[in-house]
Design brief:
By secondary structure, the protein is of the alpha/beta class. The protein is built from six helices and nine strands, in the order H-E-E-E-H-H-E-H-E-H-E-E-E-E-H.
Length: 213
């Protein structure tokens, strides 16, 4: 069973690599191009005005507490590993922004990828998926109730969409905002879906620079 799971994950990563290459070469986040495929999935709007707040969820290496990440800039993104297009787009852009940071800046930056599909996204799978994009991206999740509580804090919307006749069984429609949390733990700003890497980089650096004595 473990080898079959690993084989499926390898296939998924290879497919993701192809998508990543396409995103880097052809994706235009500033507009709609005829060459952009329509996968029929549109990000949901925010469920409510985000207020932010501390939370604890699980990772492959144990509990992750936002309160323990004081002193770092944290990017928070809600999605799931089987997401066909929206999540890979945003995670590629975030990863490219991280690659623009100096090493000392990178050490004070963390990205938390919260799975809204805890039924399928157990922590080990999340760790493998997140690491594909960048080592500073960490996958976390919890019980459905825990995930819903964190989503309410940040106004994230998601809903299960049944896919009759599909091998996947269902997709999860979800909002696609990135929440930028400052080193004191407060919600600083909310970035739109497909915010360009340079804008993400600037948002991170503005908070890191503000922490300098």
């Amino acid at each position: 069973m473990g080898s079959m799971t690993g084989h499926r994950l390898l296939i998924a990563i290879l497919l993701m690599a192809g998508l990543t290459t396409w995103l880097l070469l052809f994706w235009d986040p500033t507009g709609v191009s005829d060459s952009v495929p329509d996968k029929g999935q549109v990000p949901l709007e925010l469920a409510a005005r985000p207020t932010g707040g501390d939370f604890t969820l699980d990772s492959a290496t144990g509990p992750v507490r936002l309160a323990d990440l004081r002193g770092q800039v944290v990017l928070l993104y809600f999605g799931y590993t089987a997401c066909p297009d929206i999540c890979p787009t945003n995670l590629v852009f975030i990863a490219n922004a991280l690659r623009g940071l100096r090493q000392d800046e990178l050490e004070r930056t963390r990205v938390l990828f919260v799975s809204v599909d805890p039924e399928r996204d157990e922590p080990r799978r999340l760790a493998e998926y997140a690491a594909y994009f960048h080592p500073r991206i960490q996958g976390i999740t919890g019980t459905p109730e825990q995930v819903a509580q964190v989503a309410r804090l940040y106004g994230a919307a998601y809903r299960r969409a049944e896919e009759a006749g599909s091998a996947m069984g269902y997709l999860v429609d979800h909002s696609a905002y990135t929440y930028v949390i400052d080193p004191s733990g407060g919600l600083s700003r909310t970035l739109d879906h497909a915010t360009p890497p340079l804008e993400i980089l600037a948002a991170i650096r503005s908070l890191l620079d503000a922490e300098q004595p």
